[in-house]
Amino acid sequence: MNAKSADRIASFIFYLIAFIIISILVGLFYYILVNGLKNISLGFLTTPSSNVRGGGGIRDQLFNSFYILFITMLIAVPLGVGGGIYMAEYAKPGKVTDFIRSCVEVLASLPSIVIGMFGLLMFVNLTGWGYSILGGALALTVFNLPVIVRVSEDAIRTVPRELKEASLALGITHWHTIKTVILPSAFPTILTGIILASGRVFGEAAALLFTAGLSTPRLDYANWNPFSDRSPLNIFRPAETLAVHIWSVNTQGLIPDVEEVSSGSSAVLVISVLIFNLLARWIGSLIHRKITATK
């Protein structure tokens, strides 16, 4: 086989793989959206769910999903980016650094159900909080922290060394170089990692079953006191997320419109993740242009 024939075969294989991946994605989206969009309405998005009566909505579950995502990213992003900075810029090669990197890789490979059982032990039983938003957010932080650390480390390492050396040669301190030169250059890749981690948080169900719970108290959205049991901002209340609600409705649902609620919830989940990713990338591009003074 000559080189041109091998090149054509390789190109065909890679195009075929790309076509298969796109086809699976389009088919999955088509199935979810076609079956779910017809069940979405303003009432579906703004009314609470019901365990026995039909016609319930997903208001509380949708809010819980975004709220847990916000709390999780508030904890995970600073820790993850800070860990990536340490591993890339401060950690010295040796057994200790290799051990830390191995621990990060092991954490990244743990199944979500294991993280959920760990969260049940640590953040539900040991702390005495019971099922809570904070417990779910901490469990998801453990779940996503290794991903953000590795992505941040790799992004920082890909920044050309000439940029760092030029900054240090001007007498700028190491930390100031990291803050003003390295991080802005690595920001797009770090943002991609954060978006991927956010998508995992929004669609996670197994870890939240054991930490955030399967129920949501009746919430008063006019009550902004974070210490009130009926306040949506209370981080110590149980909170059923949208992904958990889909699982619960399909496995334990007693309502007559199980299929409609499940299909509509799935479509809302997919659309929410898509909108979140697009907004995050748009905001990230604005921030990147601002901190790098590019157009």
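(the above was protein one; protein two follows)
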Amino acid sequence: MKTVTVEGNQRLPEARVLELAGLQPGFGWLYYGAWRARGLLDSPWVASATVTRVFPGTVRIRVTERVARVRLQQPDGSVLTVAGDGTPLPGALNTQTLPLVSGWGPARLGDVLQVLSALSRYNVQSVVFTPTGLTVKLPSGSVWSGDPQALLKYAGSISMYPNKDISIYPWG
């Protein structure tokens, strides 16, 4: 192999992308294929990857990395950084400004991520989940709902009541 290019990597160093792609020095590029590149998908940071062989001696690797979305407090008190699709991202740096998600009861990360996506313009600071609902803490005030779908439906009312604590029920 004469040339290898790596594109799209922000957090993973190029050397790590090459290692995950199975492109070690001395490996015969004629035998390089999807089976070898599948290692890219083993990294939690890689959402997708495209590997293109261009004859006679070039391989192009294009990765799309996951982006840290929330900090999830575990039952033992430790905090785990999670991407928007729910994938844990070990070793994430500079995550202090991400919303902190905590709570108890059944896991509700899917609901929380959906609500955070819908409320992204409100600068959400934290979300607490319980079996009875979600409490979303904003810079000024908070929003509670027992039903995430009702919260999503009536999310526009948040801006109508600044500096207030709002409760949204399924019936409005």
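Reviewer note on protein two: The first helix runs from residue 14 to 20.
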